[in-house]
Each structure stands twice: as C-alpha cells, then as structure tokens.
Amino acid sequence: MELRHLRCFLAVAEELHFARAAERLHIDQSPLSRTIKELEEDLGAPLFVRTTRSTRLTRAGKLFLEHVPRIFAALEQARASVRAAAAGYQEQLRVALSDGITPARLSALMALCRQEDPEVAIRFEEVPLAQQIKGLHEDLYDVGFAQSAEVGDGILAEPAWHDPLWVAIPARHPLLAYARIPLEELRHYPLVMGDASVYEGYNSQIERLLRAGDVEPLVSDRVLSFDLMMALVSAGFALALVGASQLAATREPGIVGRPLAGRAPTLTTYLLRREADASDALTRFIDRVASLALEDEYSAADDRLTLEMEDEP
C-alpha cells in the first residue's frame, strides 16, 4: 500500500464520483479505477459499491475512511516537525481551534508566546469540535480552544476567558433606541447564527441563553464564517449575538454594538487538553492563557463599573 492509494481512496470517498475524483487528482479515470482496485485487493475487501448511477462506500470503506485522514494528518505533522527543527525551534505545540476564536485574545496569546518561548513553534489547525476532541485523544493536538465544555471523558475543559455577549445591530435599526437590549426584543427580528458543523459550542451557548429567557429566535441564516455573519448584519439582513471583543475587531461598517439588559451574559471560550500530564512547553502555554484570563477579569470589572455609572441618573 502506497500513499497514492490512500490519496485516490480519499478523493473518491469524498466525491463519491470517480470522474470528479479523477479531475480533482488531475489524472484519468482509468488509472484511478486501477489504483482503487489494487487497494481493495491489498485490503481483501471492496471499499465502494459502484453502479452506472452512483458510487457509495461499503461498510469496510466507511471504516477505512475513519483512519485515512489521520494518516495524512500525522504525515503533515511529521513534515511540520522537521521544518520547525530546521528553522531552529526546539519544540512545537499543536493547537486546534474550533467555534472561531476571539482575534484579540489569540493575538495577545501569540505575542506572549513569541516573547517568552521563542524556541517553541506553534501550529494552528481550525477543525470542527468533534474532530478536535478526537484529535486530542489520538495525540494529533496538544491543546485546543472551543466554546463548549461538553467534551466527554479523558479531556479536560477549563474556562480560558469570558467575553461579554453583545448584540451586533445594523445602523439605523429600531433596537438602537435601547442602551441595553432586552433579550425578549430579539424574538421580533431575524438572527444570524453559526453553521452547526463549525460553531457547535457557540450555538449551544447562544441557544442556552435564549431558552433561559424563553425566547424562540427567528434564525434567518446559518453561516460558516464570522466575516459573513458581520456582512449580513452590516447589510441590514439580521442581528447577531457575538463576543464584545469580536465585535470590536470587525471591519464591517454600519454595525453598532449594544450589551444585553439585565445581568450581562458572557461567551465562554474553553481550553481543552488531555488529562495526561502536560509537557513543560504546554504547561507554560496554559499559564499564559491563565494570565490573560486574569487580565480579562480586571478589564470586565472595570467595564461593569463604567456601565453601572452610565445607568445612574
């Protein structure tokens, strides 16, 4: 079995169409079919059921598909390790990101890492939450960030930082009459949220907040990126519930941020890692996250005091 067999299998498994897979691989369909046949003979089982109308994975093919992406991920990590060593780094940390991550926090964290641990290379990979959890179990990642603490056994989920949850509102919107937006007002206007395949933890936190306020949202769109979410708000199509620091970092014009009324809710980002002992480099990384979280607590306290003073007659 060679890597070319795995690349061909993966292309056909993802496309479920031999012609499209051959086009994606820049080869003819005939050698692709031969390569798949060689792989099936090597494994001793058919991987695809192919008819004139469709191509689908067999049970053996589905099981094989669970393992093949990890092989390529491990290979890429091996390449990255060699490149890091060649560049003079002594160690590397593999960091997974899910649910989007607040740009200001990530930038501050990376600046601190570069200043205090310049000999440690840090590699990031943006993946769905389920893939991050699986990758942590299988030692494909050392640590990760997500907006969910529902990670199952063997993984620790520790709050990394809390971001005040604000409403992103188009300019000249009726809700701008409020200095703080009552949660129940959100039921009257379309809301844009993240796609479940990318923003699992974010969606869970937002939906939990709305349920607690007995609000049934009118979700107009579910998007794959924060930039598209802000573009829809800026264009006046919908509102969005986002972290205050994310809102501050957006480049879209025509968006106004407002806090929610009552006890200000927050969007929590969690640090995820295996329960096993952490390396020295990972321990230092976790300590830096904790130091930034402490700074956030002081900043949040100042913001709450400012808002309270503004509310006073």
Question: Can you put this structure into words, describing what you see?
Answer:
The structure is a single chain. The chain has about 325 residues and is of the alpha/beta class. The chain folds into 3 domains: about 5-70, Winged helix-like DNA-binding domain superfamily/Winged helix DNA-binding domain (Arc Repressor Mutant, subunit A, Orthogonal Bundle); about 90-160 and about 270-310, D-Maltodextrin-Binding Protein, domain 2; about 160-265, Periplasmic binding protein-like II (D-Maltodextrin-Binding Protein, domain 2), CATH 3.40.190. It has 10 helices and 11 strands. It has helices spanning about 5-15, 20-25, 30-45, 60-85, 105-115, 130-135, 200-210, 225-235, 245-250, 280-310, and strands spanning about 50, 55, 90-95, 120-125, 145, 155-170, 190-195, 220-225, 240-245, 255-260, 265-275. Strands 3, 4, 5, 6, 9, 10 and 11 form a 7-stranded mixed sheet that branches. Strands 1-2 form a two-stranded antiparallel ribbon. β3 (about 90-95), α5 (about 105-115) and β4 form a beta-alpha-beta unit. α1 crosses α2 (about 20-25) and α5 crosses α10 (about 280-310). The protein is globular. Mean pLDDT is about 85; it is low at about 305-310.
